[in-house]
Amino acid sequence: MRARIIALVLALVAGTAPAEPAEGPVTGLPMPRFVSLKAGEANARRGPSTAHAVDWVFRRAGMPLEVVAEYEHWRRVRDIDGVGGWVHYALLSGVRTAIVLDDLAAMRTHPGGGREVARLEAGVVVRVPECAPVHCRVRVAGQTGWLPAGALWGVRPGETFD
């Protein structure tokens, strides 16, 4: 512990910040990463235990959240507005979702083109089962289509998954 503190002080004096860890110390999963809110309500606390005060309450099941830290059974998360806190991991899901950023974003049948399936308002939460570097397949209200990845919060630029 002392060596870590000394390394941090030396890095601050040298004007360099230590690099963020590439993976979470508890799960080994990438950090930061996106998850979704499993529960319809979740307390965001000041610290990683029920002894800490509740600063915020998330009330939208499926909302995408970004995990920025881990400690035992707790994950520090933030939402699209940067608001957050420590949430118990049981209230989170690995199901990928995203928030539409562009107003009236055209959801299409194929990546980068095809017939328009729907127009989505900014703020709509969509499921994201697949992403290519430029476009993501999304599902909402029984419709499936593709949106540009840049029109979504909950997906990293160039991120791919399926």
From TrEMBL:
Record InterPro entries: DUF1058 (IPR010466)
Signal peptide: 1-19
The keyword Signal belongs to this UniProt entry's keyword annotation: yes
Keywords: Signal
Descriptive protein name: SH3-like domain-containing protein
Source taxonomy: Bacteria, Pseudomonadati, Pseudomonadota, Alphaproteobacteria, Rhodobacterales
